[in-house]
């Protein structure tokens, strides 16, 4: 009896190629048509000139590692006892004697600057008193000018034709004097129109 060399594989499916197709791999296409409709493309791509630059990048990383091994972990070191002496050093520098500078070296310069100050202050006071105080603002002057331009007869006619009743005046002479003194300045009372 002859034993077939394919006997151990009797229960397993065998890939049979028929005219360039793998029959076993075609089954999944029928079961998952959406998956089989996705185009096949290379998912893992290597950047352009990757292998040309690979040796340079490896050498650069090795150089960095060598450089790291030669440098200390703490490149910035403080001398021993630095912070213990720091406060004393700062205080020693700040307690240095102050340098005294004289502002006025001669007495003539002192008196000349004082005289200039008095002269400028006096001129300021003199010119401030010489300027007459402007009693009326520009708006008041414009209103007064408009009143002067109105004819007296027009004012009399208006007052006669107005129907506004004037209340009787019931104040005494002292109330009027207090009102005038409180509400009008002396320049307004003494000026003639």
Describe the structure.
The chain is built from nine helices and two strands, in the order ββααααααααα. It has 193 residues and is mainly alpha-helical. It has a domain at 15-41. Strand 1 and strand 2 form a beta hairpin. The longest helix is centred in the middle third of the chain and has 24 residues, at 107-130. The radius of gyration is 56 Å and the shape is flat.
Summarize the topology.
Blueprint: E1 17-18, E2 21-22, H1 27-31, H2 33-37, H3 50-70, H4 82-94, H5 107-130, H6 138-149, H7 152-161, H8 173-183, H9 186-190
Antiparallel strand pairs: 1-2
Q: Largest beta sheet: what is the strand line-up? A: 1-2
Question: What share of residues are in beta strands?
Answer: under 5%
CA distance, first residue to last residue: 155 Å
The count of DSSP E runs of length 2 or more, i.e. the number of strands, is 2
How much is the radius of gyration in Å?
A: 56 Å
Low-pLDDT ranges: 4-18
Oligomer: single chain
Helix percentage range = 40-55%
Sheet of most strands: 2 strands, antiparallel
Output the structural class. Answer: mainly alpha
Shape: flat
The overall pLDDT average reads 76
N to C succession of SSEs: EEHHHHHHHHH
Number of H- or I-type helical stretches: 9
Key structural traits:
193 residues, mainly alpha, flat
């Amino acid at each position: 009896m002859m034993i077939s060399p394919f006997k151990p594989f009797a229960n397993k499916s065998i890939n049979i190629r028929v005219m360039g197709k793998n029959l076993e791999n075609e089954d999944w296409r029928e079961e998952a048509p959406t998956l089989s409709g996705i185009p096949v493309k290379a998912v893992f791509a290597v950047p352009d000139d990757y292998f040309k630059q690979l040796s340079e990048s490896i050498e650069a990383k090795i150089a960095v590692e060598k450089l790291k091994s030669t440098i200390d972990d703490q490149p910035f070191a403080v001398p021993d006892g630095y912070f213990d002496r720091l406060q004393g050093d700062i205080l020693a520098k700040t307690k240095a004697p102050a340098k005294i500078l004289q502002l006025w070296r001669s007495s003539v310069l002192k008196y000349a600057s004082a005289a200039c100050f008095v002269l400028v202050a006096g001129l300021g006071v003199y010119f401030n008193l010489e300027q007459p105080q402007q009693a009326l603002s520009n708006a008041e002057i414009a209103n007064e000018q408009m009143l002067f331009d109105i004819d007296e007869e027009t004012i009399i006619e208006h007052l006669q034709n107005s129907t506004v009743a004037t209340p009787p005046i019931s104040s005494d002479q002292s109330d009027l004097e207090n009102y005038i003194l409180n509400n009008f300045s002396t320049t307004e009372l003494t000026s003639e129109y």
